[in-house]
Amino acid sequence: MNIHFIKHWLKNPAAVGAIAPSSPYLARAMAQPADQFDTIIELGAGTGVITDALIERNPSARLIAFELDPALAGKLAARHPGIEVVAGRFHECAQILDSLPERALIVSALPFRSLPKEVIRPTTVILARFLMQNVARSLVQFTYQPRTPFDVPTSLTWRWRRVIWRNTPPAGVWELRQG
Ligand SMILES: C[S@@+](CC[C@H](N)C(=O)[O-])C[C@H]1O[C@@H](n2cnc3c(N)ncnc32)[C@H](O)[C@@H]1O
């Protein structure tokens, strides 16, 4: 297992919210819609397994990756100089969303079931507002539990897409958008 993942998990298990990085199968499933979007926002990039899949799926898209841990964020930026990496809590540095085009994809690996309430609330408010601004926006999220990842206003709908068994533990992939 990746040593950077282990170090980060030891420092902050609730922020990591996983016992292992996503498998390549889960990463590819999360990246599947990426070729339909020119602007992609990744949340909780970690060691970059989903980042790699996003770049492979759509190398010409603008990719903005948020990661809480500054060491992991620095490594990701060094490995992928062509993407924008933002280090810190997403909800505290999300201003960049205001300048993004109408059509955009959010790919989230944030562990909503283990993050503290004071992080979940502002994060989900920002995400819901972003999606409600335009019908051409979509969010993809994985979760290890058999229920929707977080509560949303009634104008947004969660759709279950698939389960990835070849992941530890198996993960469900969900999509959130208007309608
Ligand atoms: C479940 S891990 C996913 C890592 C990687 N994307 C993967 O799939 O293996 C969650 C990641 O989200 C990051 N994270 C947690 N809270 C965050 C926040 N509020 N803003 C940005 N990143 C956050 C953690 O540091 C961790 O790297």
From TrEMBL:
Keyword RNA-binding attributed: yes
Name under which the protein is recorded: Ribosomal RNA adenine methylase transferase N-terminal domain-containing protein
InterPro entries named among the record's database cross-references: KsgA/Erm, rRNA_Ade_Mease_Trfase_CS, rRNA_Ade_methylase_Trfase_N, SAM-dependent_MTases_sf
Residue ranges constituting the Ribosomal RNA adenine methylase transferase N-terminal domain according to the UniProt record: 26-164
Signal peptide feature range: none
Alphabetical keyword list: Methyltransferase, RNA-binding, S-adenosyl-L-methionine, Transferase
MF-aspect GO terms: RNA binding; rRNA (adenine-N6,N6-)-dimethyltransferase activity
Keyword RNA-binding set for record: yes
Organism: Paraburkholderia franconis
PROSITE patterns assigned to the protein according to its UniProt record, in alphabetical order: RRNA_A_DIMETH
